[in-house]
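P.,

For your records, the input lines for the assembly:
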Amino acid sequence: MSEDHFQGYKGPALAALKKFNVRVWGQAKIETNRGNFVGTILPRSENDDDTHIVLKIPTGYNVGIDVRTLLSMEETGYKKANYKIPEQEFPYTQGKPNVKLIGTGGTIASRLDYRTGAVIPAFSPGELYGAVPELADICNLTTEKVFAVFSENMGPAQYKQLAVAIGKEIESGIDGIVIGHGTDTLHHTAAALTYMVQNPPVPIVLVGSQRSSDRPSSDAALNLMHACYAAGHGDIAEVMVCMFGPTSDEYGLLHRGTRVRKMHSSYRSTFRTLGDMPLGKVTTSAVTPIKQNFRPRRKDKKVTIKPYFEEKVAILYYYPNMHPDMVDSLVDNGYKGIVIAGTGLGHVNKPLYPALDRASKKGVAVYMTVQTLWGYVQMFVYETGREMMALGVVPAENMLPEVAWVKLGWALGQTSNLDEVKELMLTPMYDDITPREPYNGYLVYQGGVPEVEAFIRSFRK
Amino acid sequence: MTQKPSPARNYQQTMQAIGYVPRKEASQADYDRIGFMSGLEVHQQLKTDEKLFCRCPAGIYQGDDAYDAEVIRHMRPTLSELGEYDGTALMEFKTRKNIVYRIKNETTCTYEVDDTPPFPINRKAVDIAIEISLLKKLNIVGEIHITRKQYLDGSIPTGFQRTAIIGVEGAIALKNKTVRLIQLSLEEDSCREISDVGHWRTYKTDRLGMPLIETVTYPDMVNPDEVAEACQVIRFLNRSTDKVRVGIGSARQDVNVSCRGGTRVEIKGVSHIKWIPELTHNEAFRQWALLHIREILNQRIDPGKWQMHARELDPGDFPFRSQVLQQIAAQEMKLYGVRLPHFDGLLSHFTQPAQVFADEISDRLKVVACIEKPNMDAEDSLWRLETSAAYNRLREVLDARSEDAVLFFWGPEDDIATALETIEERCRMAFDGVPNETRKSFPDGTTMFERVLPGADRMYPDTDSPPIPLLDEDIERLGKDLPTLHNQAWQTMSNWGVPEDTYTYIFRNNLFPLIQQMVEEDGEDPVFAATLFGHRLKFVEGQYDQAPGFHYGMVAHMLRALREKGIPGEVMYSALPALWQYAEEDPAAVLDQIGYSPLEKTEVLAVLPELRKTFARIRLNGSGAAEADWLMGKLRPRALGNIPLNELKREIDARLGKEVRSKK
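Structure tokens returned:
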């Protein structure tokens, strides 16, 4: 228990605290050869160095004291911080849709511990009501934490667990489902759930936030409101990602799980539909479809859950002069599927061919996608493409590389018959492959061009 | 029933009742009587090429309409600032502001609009902040921790300011006392506001993110002039490093004021030191007036039993005479009547010059409920819009008794609920005295409510930035070449016999090091050198526009060149306007510009007889003094640099002397 008194401290800093008998949360008077300091000793982050003590001074700021300058230290009081989120019962309103929020570990809403800076996640309906009271105007909300992992640690096991949980909710008659998720791999999960939850009768909306909810300008609350609205009131009964449309607080976009991708490391409007248009636009009071071929909400409780996934599937991001051992090592390590993100129309260099031939002969399913992200794989244009197809590499049309990876894992999870896999892979589902690309499916405007600048100026980005 | 005094008369009477005196007549005894107390938070931009947490250029400004894009955001109160949410908080959130940021690519990147995490802190800014901290005798911290300080007004798109303490517990020397410093922090500057109307507030982001230091004093100042003096000294110290920005907006201060029994109120963004005395004086007396109101109210009624009454009114029911109230229905505004029990005479109670308690309510209606002014009219308003007829009817409708105050207010339907809460809240606060708030300042020395003063609770660590250790060797290196302390420089100039009225100009422009160099290296007379700047150049600065290339070193350079040629230093008086306006580096060219030509004394005086003939033709009377002045003026350009002016004066007087005497 004594360790608790020195949270995060080690080495000389820990020794100094012990020597002068001062604890974390102790109020201290400190003498150093740079002058005197007073304040409350705070825990230290594990990853910071071991020569400083963190002090919260009376004006609320934190400073570090170098223990090498320390002359004396005295504990004059002790007050441990104990933060709790106030809970208020989430009001039930007759006539409002019932929405289930499924938690995966991402922080949807949170309260900040101002003394440590730690973020305490708000998750129960009561806590969420405390953080985002407007939710009560939108729906009747219940929550369930299925597991708690960081976005980057999400994987096939979690996809399956989520799919099963969604199936149960649908069978029990929920009006819509919202899944809170970290944003890094949100689009992978969205693709996985699209394949695993077939033909749902209600909206399934994945949502996250690009700015943590502890800051006043966070996108978390608005994203959550948008998601709850789309889930409870929207007519689009598909798996979708709901995130900011522009970086401004204006509206959200609903993206199909099979065509969405995170395109910026930090922007709020990071999620984009690639090679197509988003499903729709959402505000806190309306869902406006953009695409017309969506699957509408149904009254039944029927859904097919296919929670399958073969984990031995990899994405190979091709680069010039890639050596064949990159392919060989995957095959030798027992991989059953490889999705290549090739250059241009879907190419790799010639020295890789023997390795691809070997993979194919060993029964590994190899699919080609494009690292340009936009556009189709076209392997007939050049001789080399045709040669590769002869080696068993299957062009995956305009499927996004990550989506192809998810679909291949899902297909191989159901069958090891490569013809059946190919049948699954190349049969379009929820526009993972589209028969045509609309002219506005590719829009990356170039800044600096006068007409683009004029447009940007007139439009809240 | 006795006749009620008019609002204007009541304003006068209450002003007297609290013992208000205008600042010009106030003595220390007056300030001691009301327990005047004040402290400062002085902001100073640092001179760096780039901003504090990104690589955008610092110090480039844009016009209000010069933007490439707009971004819109809303600031959401985080839980711990408001505590538990309830219906009120929800409603407050619904009437919130839309914040629009106008972005220019040249000055703003994705960091400022909070779409990219911070880059490593600008080390040059850290070094300057340490140097200034050492000057102010602050204890330098062992490690800098970047902290987030929440702001919900939208002035920073993240909703918080990144800020860090560099030193704590220092001191500065005023002429007659020492003022203690609480701390010095390094922080990013905020946006500049373009407009704030109704529910829309617009900012530009050019200044956002520029490095800034904030020096915070203890509330050691006991009268308004002392506050201004402390502010000057802090500014001098900052400028003495030559590593801070100067010019409009580069230095601003928040002034904390309270009176005995009052509350710390922060007057934000005072951009001129000369405004400080009037502002602090008025704020201390405003608090004194609010305490008087509290006393009256608590005598009249138990606060627990006090209840405000309000109801919606039909504008057609009232014989309105003012345009504002006649147009309410046409503008689709809702009209409300409010009865404030036991508030009779208090709405016209003095608070500030030309302001009464009713203004405190109206200010909050504007800020909290976002209803533009005029937003209310009270029977007791100092400048009432409506006539007694309308108020008699209002009293009837509201069933008001003589001890009650009544008022009309109006606004868009969506804002009414917030408005009602706001009025009631402000009135309830009157029972407690002085609300905790930050106030906006006006050049006339008055202030208006800006927002509720946030507590120390709004600080939390910036999880995007690691702590930065400050090593002993860094501090030693930065402490090596510190400029002369302001109070030591003061002492030196005083010993030299330099007149005190030059000090402000000299310190403000950090000229002491230059003057010291002119005295010590060039052998200039200290009084001549100091007054050349503090009197003559100060005058020139007020008269002419400064050339972009001008720097003070040019003055010393020019003077040195004159001395080398044996030309008297007085030529500088003519040369200064030329230097200032054209920034000519070559002394010979400057001399040419001002028409200087080397002449013997006899050559200068040779034209005297001819000039006297001319004067004889144009003279209006027989005054010898007038002739002497006229001749001085005519001969001055020829004499400059050839004979000292006092010698010329003697020569002229000598020639006129005979005649002046003979005419008597």
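Two observations worth noting. Chain A touches chain B through 62 residues (CB under 8 Å). The domain at 2-78 of chain A is CATH 2.30.30.520 (SH3 type barrels.).

Regards
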